[in-house]
Design a protein that fits this description.
The protein has 2 domains: about 250 residues, Aldolase class I (TIM Barrel); about 100 residues, Up-down Bundle (Chorismate Mutase Domain, subunit A). The chain starts with 19 loop residues before the first strand and ends with a helix. It is built from 14 helices and 10 strands. The strands form 2 sheets. The chain has an 8-stranded parallel beta sheet with strand order 9-6-5-4-3-2-1-10. By secondary structure, it is of the alpha/beta class. It binds phosphoenolpyruvate and manganese (II) ion (MN).
């Protein structure tokens, strides 16, 4: 299916500094906490937008579920006092109406809501032909089409000020990240939708404060257009996501140390880059030659096994190949997990090819 979104770039609707830094507490808890946090954040020049959750989607009922509509008034006060734009998560029609009543600047849709196309469709219909900017987090599960589907539903409703937020994906182990970044997914999203602005939410990826600088730097190095970071005036007292919220001082230090690579730098370095890229293209061509040669040998082996009635998969041989490959690869400084993944992918394809050959020869015999 052809995917094309009609999107207005961030710089055409938002006068905030670049990269776009959105910061604020996971949840609005009290008026004082909102105002104190907003005022501390407003003193950090890189930050353009203040965020706070008003309705909190919690895993279990009974946990703190957000302060509700009264929190919107606190956010409006914070906007008045600081000049920061304000962003709020919405999950249903009532939330949207309340945000419109309070003239909230930017909405975002959370990861759990994006996983549900019924909710997204409903939200898209209510927002139809409004001019409000909407940020759409990735769904909890690593399904790029679900994410694209949500972006398309909103865009088809006439929402053009759209930003995708990469906040990582549920992983069973939860280690070392609360939500696995799976960088290949936002990279693929950008490949499919080059004009879509993508920012990163390192707080929900990391689940703790230690890993936030690394993840944020990686997002910047990949060319993402901004960050959404949770900050609380007293992080240790936060009612939600207590382990991952930075203090305003920590946010400032971390933003001051962030390396932002500009497009200008890339242009200056373009020549050296072109040379290296042509080396890569050449190496990729060689890699393809070698892979296709390996597959031809695999086919010969498949025919031989079929002829002599030997099973396609031989555990002893596979263990030997695997062990040698990893040992030799490691000696060349390659990552073990990468080697295992690569060899397993090649092996899976080899088994598939041999199974095809087994079928093909039996088919011929029966004719
Ligand atoms: C949040 O940003 O506070 C939030 C609930 O995030 P997510 O939807 O990514 O879980
Ligand atoms: Mn949170």
């Amino acid at each position: 299916m052809q995917t094309k979104l009609n999107i207005i770039p961030i710089c055409d609707w938002c006068s905030c500094p670049t990269p776009l830094i959105i910061s604020g507490p996971c949840s609005a808890e009290t008026e004082q906490q909102v105002l104190e946090t907003a005022e501390a954040i407003a003193g950090i020049q890189q930050v353009g937008i203040f965020r706070a959750g008003i309705w909190k989607p919690r895993t279990r009922p009974g946990d703190f579920e957000g302060v509700g509509i009264k929190g919107l008034k606190w956010l409006c006060k914070a906007r008045e006092k600081t000049g920061l734009k304000i962003a709020v998560e919405i999950g249903n029609v009532d939330h949207i109406n309340a945000c419109f009543d309070h003239e909230i600047d930017i909405l975002w849709i959370g990861a759990r809501t994006v996983a549900n196309p019924f909710s997204i469709q409903e939200i898209a219909e209510v927002l139809e032909n409004t001019d409000i900017p909407v940020m759409i987090k990735n769904p909890v599960n690593p399904d790029i089409n679900l994410w694209i589907g949500a972006l398309e539903r909103l865009n088809q409703s006439g929402i053009k000020k759209i930003i995708a937020i990469h906040r990582g994906f549920y992983s069973y182990s939860g280690q070392p990240y609360r939500n696995d970044p799976m960088w290949e997914i936002p990279i693929e999203l950008k490949r499919i939708l080059p004009n879509l602005p993508v920012i990163c939410d390192p707080s929900h990826i990391c689940g703790n404060t230690n890993l936030i600088p690394d993840i944020s730097q990686k997002a910047m190095d990949l060319g993402m257009e901004g960050l959404m970071i949770e900050v609380h005036i007293r992080p240790e007292q936060a009612l939600t996501d207590v382990a991952q919220q930075l203090s305003p001082a920590q946010l400032k230090t971390f933003l001051d140390n962030l390396v932002i690579r500009s497009n200008k730098d890339i242009n200056l370095l373009q020549h050296g880059l072109e040379e290296l890229r042509s080396e890569i293209d050449h190496t990729d061509a060689e890699l393809l030659e070698i892979l296709s040669k390996r597959m031809q040998i695999i086919e010969k082996i498949g025919r031989y096994k079929k002829l002599h009635n030997i099973t396609a998969f031989q555990v002893k041989r596979w263990n030997e190949v695997r062990e040698r490959f990893i040992r030799k690869g490691a000696l060349k400084g390659m990552d073990k997990e990468f080697l295992v993944n690569m060899l397993e992918t090649i092996h899976k394809e080899s088994i598939r090819r041999q199974s095809e050959i087994f079928k093909e020869i039996s088919g011929n015999k029966n004719q």
